[in-house]
UniProtKB/TrEMBL annotation, chain A:
The keyword Transmembrane applies. Its main location: membrane. This is Sulfate transport system permease protein CysT. It comes from Blastochloris sulfoviridis. Belongs to the binding-protein-dependent transport system permease family. CysTW subfamily. It is found in: Cell membrane. The gene is cysT. Pfam families: BPD_transp_1. The lineage of its organism: Bacteria, Pseudomonadati, Pseudomonadota, Alphaproteobacteria, Hyphomicrobiales.
Automatic annotation (TrEMBL), chain C:
Keywords: ATP-binding, Cell membrane, Membrane, Nucleotide-binding, Sulfate transport, Translocase, Transport. Residues 3-237 form the ABC transporter domain. The keyword ATP-binding applies. Belongs to the ABC transporter superfamily. SUPFAM superfamilies: MOP-like, P-loop containing nucleoside triphosphate hydrolases. NCBIfam families: 3a0106s01 (TIGR00968). The keyword Coiled coil does not apply. GO terms for biological process: quaternary ammonium group transport. This is Sulfate/molybdate ABC transporter ATP-binding protein. GO terms for molecular function: ABC-type sulfate transporter activity; ATP binding; ATP hydrolysis activity.
Length: 285, 300, 346
């Protein structure tokens, strides 16, 4: 613009002819503050009361350390399995026609809709030594329920939809022409998949992985039934928070919660970085 | 945080794949069937089998035992409390979701993306932590603990705490359905209503609300499923007082821990039924009213 | 009803979108707001409607200050660029909307509303489509429904934002005449925004030209076309080529040539000469203001023929409309004269 730009004062909201901004925004901010921001703020305030040293002491106490290691390790494994399996499921649901496809597609969301406690007792029933699958594995000497392997099964269940649901739309939007272009340039189908399709799905897979991981780390309901909850062996970090609370040890609970929150934010940050990178490189998420 | 933070709501809109032809973009039939087989087996093993197990365990002692387990007064109280909590939490979050979506989607203001990020916060917090924050506020040793005790007001280990924790965990559902849809729809229809003389409220009722009704229902469905099924957060604030502060998922836990397996799975089967109804309704909405949902839900 | 924008300025943050704009539309007049994208024309229209508030200045409707009157009470009929039809309402319900939202006291009876809808559908030549939904209509039909909806409330003023913008070329041309027709029958004071000069010049009584938030000129199509007031208008209207010239002592220098200004006042210094194809004629040697030109190409342009001419080193080529009997071809050197000099300083 060749016109002089006027130095205008900062404006909170661009003017609009539509009514109701003050009312809706005011209500939304108040409600958000009361329900979400103030409660989370209290947690942060409590944690800062403990100081870094206090947090560190709690985090490195052997039992907490074991629980954190377990939570993060098993969550990582479950998210990794889902990254691969979710990619295959998304591929099959998006690309192939077969009977029952729609039904299968709808059932993928089951872990979002099924209460976690229900999932927990159902999985335990299946994988207990006398259960449908546990009974098959027991003669082989494999114990699933009441071991870290059981935690892994529960976490695969609850984090299953994330990779599928982040990859599906990207795969559906993928232009078939780029695959045809690859073929005209002499690439075999396998080369096209490896060199053209998978790289464009990578950001979505990573995002889904991070989401699945974040969900798995915080999961409580489905795990406690199947885990056995033995200190140092199969006790997850969220359970430790509950145990601290039952002992009215607010400081201990706060410390573990803060560590988990910090790690949740790191994975959120990772997701945002992946998406920013993806947008820069591919123009989409 | 982008839409991918909300996989509950991510796309189901998969266009029907083209009829199998020998196109260069198809895999060999063998590869195709191996992949389909692997995907189907994985989903059957991890999703369908647990679902079947719930009903099989519930009916293990026969249909009579199944129905007898609902005669337990504690179970009936749990069902009542669950309905009550959802009936309070979901409408409140609907009002919030509409208000937040109106402000975010139809206006430009400073700090908008921060505001939207805050709305999503409850989804990135462990359910246990969601309960913990209310204990820190209202528990015996919490910020307001002394005040509440002095005035004999109970929030933690009582119904208000359960309601608060449920509101917290279902907080983002409605807002995140409405915001992207209302952003897509823009402001022209509302402006047209105003130029035709409609009052603000009238404009909202006759133009905005009809345009988002299916998305609103979609958000309500998801919020309701979570509200009735939440375990971790509610468990922390409930105190598990039978007949008073037990919701259905907590009742499942209590019965299960008492080795009352049929009773536990019977209550679980109700919740599983709710989950299935939610999934079916959700799929129907996506299939029938895909155009009226945010773009990420539309069928190709 | 006459409407008037007085010294309207509009800023969005740092950017000034409208600067001190005055536009006056007489009662019953059809006026076009013409300008390139980003010229501020849609913003001005929205300020008239009350959809935006000006940063400074006043809006007068029928002589009364309406700047603070909310959009609902302004009594304007506004047609949106993409029509903004209510997608969940039928055609009839869309048209009836403005009547139905009136307070009970001033709301017509249902029968009267139905009659009004039928009457309007006849006016916009869409009888029988009452029950269709917007998604079931073609672009041209949607535009007509949008106009009917705006007319239903008996607006004092019609404001149309790019009324033909979303339509394809053939439909646009048909609807232009139709809109002019409707205007003549209903007699509404009408202001419409367009970026298409043919559209503006063809149907408007007067045209207001905006550029970068400034009103460059307002006048009848003939005035605008024949007597552009500013360099921007001269370059924007018609197919003019801009040639850099130097003004000095009543003469402009175009490369090696000097052209007499013949009375046009111009300050000494760099200036711009705008040449349209019809401004050039073949001339005899030695005639005043005659220039030698190299014929680069001869092409057909619809019914006419045009020569592309090179007037000198470093100058862009200009086009000249040729008489039917002209016998010239590529490579010839001809003498041409400018029938008029459109020169603007700067």
């Amino acid at each position: 613009m060749s016109l002089a730009t006027h130095a205008t004062t900062f404006r909170f909201r661009q003017p609009s002819a539509l009514p109701g901004f003050g009312l809706t925004f005011g209500f939304a901010v108040t409600y958000l503050s009361l329900i979400v921001l103030i409660p989370l703020g209290v947690l942060v305030a409590r944690a800062s009361g403990l100081g870094l040293e206090g947090l560190w002491q709690t985090a490195t106490s052997p039992r907490v350390l074991a629980a954190l290691k377990l939570s993060f390790g098993v969550s990582f494994a479950a998210a990794a399995v889902n990254a691969v399996a979710g990619l295959v499921v998304a591929w099959v649901l998006t690309r192939y026609a077969f009977p029952g496809r729609r039904l299968l597609d709808a059932i993928v969301d089951l872990p979002f809709a099924l209460p976690t406690a229900v999932a927990g007792i159902a999985l335990t029933a299946i994988y207990a030594p006398n259960g449908w699958i546990g009974g098959l594995l027991a003669p082989l000497g494999v114990k699933v329920a009441y071991t870290p392997l059981g935690i892994f099964v529960a976490l695969v269940f609850i984090s299953l939809p994330f990779v599928v649901r982040t990859v599906q739309p990207v795969l559906a939007d993928l232009d078939r022409e780029i695959e045809e272009a690859s073929a005209t340039l002499g690439a075999s189908r396998a080369q096209t998949v490896l060199r053209v399709i998978l790289p464009s799905l990578l950001p979505a897979v990573l995002t889904g992985f991070a989401l699945a991981f974040g969900r798995a780390v915080g999961e409580y309901g489905s795990v406690i039934f199947i885990a056995g909850n033995m200190p140092f062996v199969s006790e997850i970090a969220p359970l430790l928070i509950v145990i601290q609370l039952e002992e009215f040890n607010y400081a201990g609970a706060t410390a573990i919660a803060t560590i988990m929150l910090a790690i949740a934010f790191v994975s959120l940050l990772a997701i945002n970085l992946i998406q920013a990178w993806s947008r820069r490189r591919f123009g989409h998420v | 945080m982008s839409r991918t933070m909300m996989p509950e709501t991510s796309t189901r809109g998969v266009p029907a794949p083209p009829a199998p032809s020998a196109a260069v973009t198809d895999e060999a039939p063998l590869t195709r069937w191996v992949l389909i087989g692997a995907a189907v087996a994985f989903l059957l093993l991890f999703l369908v089998l647990p679902l079947i197990a719930i009903f099989a365990e519930a009916l293990r002692r026969g249909i009579a035992a199944y129905f007898a387990s609902f005669a337990d007064p504690d179970t009936q109280d749990a069902i009542r409390l669950t309905l009550l909590v959802a009936a309070i939490a979901v409408p409140l979050n609907v009002v919030f979701g509409i208000a937040a979506a109106w402000a975010v989607a139809k206006f430009d203001f400073a700090g908008k993306s921060l505001f939207v990020t805050f709305i999503d916060l409850p989804f990135s917090v462990s359910p246990v932590v969601s309960g913990l924050v209310f204990v820190l506020l209202f528990g015996a040793h919490g910020v307001f603990g002394g005040f509440l005790q002095a005035h004999d007001i109970r929030i933690i280990f009582a119904v208000p705490g359960i309601v608060l924790a449920t509101i917290f965990v279902t907080f983002p559902f409605v807002a995140r359905e409405l915001i992207p849809l209302m952003q897509e729809q823009g402001t022209a229809e509302e402006e047209a209503a105003l130029t035709l003389g409609a009052s603000g409220f009238r404009m909202f009722l006759t133009v905005t609300l009809p345009n988002v009704k299916w998305a609103l229902l979609y958000g309500v469905l998801l919020a309701n499923a979570r509200a009735m099924g939440e375990f971790g957060a509610v468990s922390v604030v409930s105190g598990h007082i039978r007949g008073l502060t037990n919701t259905m998922p907590l009742q499942v836990e209590i019965l299960y821990n008492e080795y009352a397996f049929v009773g536990a799975f019977a209550v679980a089967s109700l919740l599983a039924g709710l989950a299935l109804v939610t999934l079916v309704a959700k799929a129907l909405l996506e299939w029938r009213y895909g155009d009226a949902l945010a773009r990420t839900h539309r069928h190709g | 009803m006459e409407i008037r924008a007085e010294a309207i300025t509009k800023r969005f943050g740092e950017a000034t979108v409208l600067a001190d704009v005055d536009v006056h539309v007489h009662a019953g007049e059809l006026v076009a707001l013409l300008g390139p994208s980003g010229s501020g024309k849609t913003t001005l229209l929205r300020i008239f409607a009350g959809l935006e508030q000006p940063s400074a200045g006043r809006i007068l409707l029928g002589g009364e200050d309406a700047t603070q009157v909310p959009v609902q009470a302004r009594g304007v009929g506004f047609m949106f660029q993409h029509y903004a039809l209510f997608r969940h309402l039928t055609v009839a319900e869309n048209i009836a909307y403005g009547l139905k939202v009136r307070p009970r006291a001033s709301r017509p009876s249902n029968a009267a509303i139905r009659a009004r809808v039928t009457e309007l559908l006849d006016l916009v030549q869409l009888p029988g489509l009452e029950r269709r939904y917007p998604a079931q209509l073609s672009g041209g039909q949607r535009q007509r429904v949008a106009l009917a909806r705006a007319l239903a409330v008996d607006p004092k003023v019609l404001l149309l934002d790019e009324p033909f913008g979303a339509l394809d070329a053939q439909v646009r041309r048909d609807l232009r005449r139709w809109l002019r027709d409707i205007h003549e029958r209903t007699g509404h004071t009408t202001l419409f925004v367009t970026h298409d000069q043919d559209e503006a010049l063809e149907i408007a009584d007067r045209v207001a030209i905006l550029d970068q938030g400034r009103l460059e000129q307002i006048g009848t199509p003939d005035e605008i076309y024949e007597h552009p007031a500013t360099a921007f208008v001269a370059g924007f209207i018609g197919e003019a080529t801009r040639l850099p010239v130097e003004a000095r002592g009543g003469v402009v220098r175009l490369g090696p040539h000097a052209l007499a200004l013949n009375g046009t006042r111009l300050a000494d210094g760099p200036a711009s000469l705008f040449v349209r194809p019809r401004d050039l004629v073949l001339a005899d040697d030695g005639k005043a203001n005659a220039l030698p030109a190299n014929v680069v190409a001869v092409r057909r342009a619809g019914p006419a023929r045009r020569a592309e001419l090179h007037l000198g080193e470093g100058l862009p080529t200009v086009e000249m409309e040729l008489p039917a009997d002209a016998v010239i071809g590529k490579g010839d050197v001809v003498q041409v004269a400018l029938t008029r000099l459109r020169v603007f300083g700067g």
